[in-house]
Hints:
Layout: E1 11-12, E2 28-29, H1 37-42, E3 60-66, E4 72-77, H2 80-83, E5 88-93, E6 115-116, E7 122-128, H3 131-140, E8 143-147, E9 166-167, E10 171-172, E11 174-177, H4 180-185, E12 189-197, E13 200-201, E14 209-215, E15 218-223, H5 228-239, E16 246-249, H6 265-277, E17 281-284, H7 287-293, E18 296-297, E19 300-308, E20 314-326, H8 339-342, E21 347-357, H9 370-388, H10 392-398, H11 416-427, E22 440-441, E23 444-456, E24 463-468, E25 474-477, H12 487-499, E26 506-509, H13 526-545, E27 554-559, H14 561-565, E28 573-585, E29 591-601, H15 608-627, E30 633-634, E31 639-640, E32 659-663, H16 687-699, H17 710-713
Parallel strand pairs: 3-17, 15-16, 20-21, 25-26, 29-32
Antiparallel strand pairs: 1-2, 3-7, 4-6, 4-8, 5-7, 9-10, 11-21, 12-19, 13-18, 14-15, 14-17, 19-20, 22-23, 23-28, 24-25, 24-27, 28-29, 30-31
Amino acid sequence: MTRTVTPTTTSTATLAPDLTPPQPLPAALGPAHRVEGRDKVTGRATYAAEYGAPDGAELTYGWPVQSTIASGRITAVDVDAVAGMPGVVGVLWHGNAPRLVPADSQMINQLQSTDIHFRGEVVALVLATSPEAAREAAAQLPVTTVARDAHSVLTQDDPGMYEPETVNPSFPGVSERGDAAAAFATSPLQVDAVYRTPGLHNNAMEPHATTAVFGDGKLTVHDSNQGGAGVQEALATALRLPPENVRVITTHIGGGFGSKGTARPVVVLAAMAAMQFERPVRVVFTRQHMFALVGYRTPTIQHLRLGAGADGRLTSISHESITQTARHEEFAEQVAVATRVMYGGENRSTRHHLTPLDVPIPSWMRAPGECPGMFALESAMDELAIAAGLDPVELRIRNEPARDPELDVAFSSRHLVDCLRRGAELFGWAERDPTPRARRDGRWWVGTGMAAATYPAMVNPAQASVTAGPDGRFEVSINATDIGTGARTTLLILAAEALDVATDRVRIRIGDTSLPPAGVAGGSAGTSSWGWAVAKACRELRTRLAGRTPEEDVTVTADTEQDIEAQEELSRHAFGAHFVEVRVDGDTGEVRVSRALGVFAAGRIVNPVTARSQFLGGMTMGLSMALHEEGLMDPEFGDYANHDLATYHVASIADVPDIQVEWLPEDDSEVNLLGTKGIGEIGIVGVAAAVANAVHHAVGVRVRELPVHLEDLLPR
């Protein structure tokens, strides 16, 4: 069962894919379904692994050969052993790979040395005339290695652990206000607990893939990524090519969740092979490849100490996190940063600790930092509510800050309390008996839980151009990337609105570095950043035209960089509240989420149809984190043992029978021209805590390590 929210009236039209003339379909009032939806369901939409070679050239397929040790070096690659196999074109390895300009991102520095940094690292790429031939030869390629001692398990007391100066992207690693330890020691109410989350793995529907073509000194790649401009810059620098000679096309992307936010090994390998062998090359990672090569959410160990007065008001907040990083590249997830903004309290401490291990490089995964960090904080807040004898909603309201509690600046807008109260009303929270293990329905124990959510509202500089033609139509161009969120549709709505025309008179061109530059589709900043530039350009063009149709094309280009630089210092965040009901089988410990509700204050919602999908997707992913997803590190091999979807489990439609979404009216002009904040990630934040809190309410067992296992809930 789902909740329908009455949308703002807009107009829409179905358009053909980018770079083709728009279909002359009439505009229709109402919420806009994805303009590329028909192309996707009919198979007309073309993804990175579906582009053929130009001018009838034969396509070559690359298949990676991966290291079987976690640390060591390569002593030999016997290329001749596979040279005569059917269809084999060649082998790219450190002995013949183009020398790259070393990059800070080790994901770019592919096949540059004999060093092996983690199990699963690419040690060679076999090229053949078919994917089957490439895969067979890759399996037969002899690679001799010498192993070193490796350490791949995250612990609380690793001697190599240190405090990073900054955490993703550039937050201070340590934040202190007052004396949290002293205040905690004298607090009448105390929560002192350790929470753990496992390694979590990005599994977008479309695997990472690239089709690369090189000729006449120019490189063109059809690549599955979240931001073509960054990939273009990375390839141009690494391969010593002028940026204008590198074109990155991202017409359709089948999901990313952060794992496609920068250039990943797939595009580097394909580009190098295309240049080295002077052939069009396609490289597609399998699901198994993705578990080692594209980034993942690091496991976390989090120590929370909350001190409060008898009335539940916080006097001390301390949040320490331990995460892992690859030994050959630092990535520090900002696990404790959300705690800095959530609740009031004069004495505060947040610290990040990082342990270098012989593991793949962790990276972004939907709501990095906020997602695992809020599991710990919101679980601890639930424990504090019980200790204080307060309703969990009331406890949070009592600790609502008037200003950002650490930066001591105003919020651009903050409606967390409104989300909490509206969510409690919709969910029927007032009817809840707070006593754990008090409600049973046949064999099922029933419990309810809640948690708050937050995510920063960010904007990045962008450029957009809009052209008015003598036929009364408009073409908007910006190198935005639609990773499946509905960006095309949202930009179409914003452009038509700013131009004051029907959407069937507007064509949107995105996903190509030949268009005006724009930032990555990440950090929930896409619509806020790209839409600002589009709306600004369209408004300027509308003013210039003054209602007339031009006799020849008129183009206006707008840039938002100076607008962003001029913004006042404020604390800009979206907020939300999650409420869930769970059922726990009294005999087996099986957990089912029977109801889930999310209420959000996330700025202006441009398109209710695609927005609702983003909230639902985030909530489902959070439920998956709570009950299913768990990367299991094998300490002997230094690798995640469950590296496919047969053994790494994710939620399905059966896991969400009743899920509701609502958002509050909010228009935050302090974030951008549009009043938007971003919605792609806040939906996942807090869900896991709400589920764990509901499980405690159902059976009286506090689960502090995810995912919730059956054995956690069975009588001991």
